[in-house]
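Contributing new records

If you add data, match the layout below exactly. Sequence lines come first and carry their own label; structure lines follow with theirs. Keep one chain per record. Anything else will be rejected by the validation script.
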Amino acid sequence: MFIFCLELHLSLSCDSLKGKRGIVKSLLGRSRNRFNVSCAEVDRQDNPRVAVLGFVTVSPDKGIARSTLERLEDWVYENWPDVEITGSDISEV
């Protein structure tokens, strides 16, 4: 069994925590449904301009787990034009 984690650092165009919450909740919910991953906002909750999101997947195949998170990162980049990815890290747990 292989466990992989993706940490995404995002720059948002929000001025309020309410606006940030709308973007983050939507992104997390859609990624859960589309990629079957566990996810949460893991850091910088008090800053409306940035978000740090964590995604985790488990698979019996190392390649499948890693490619799922790589596809998720590409999906965020392509489908969320108002969100800029400032950093990402995929690691095996």
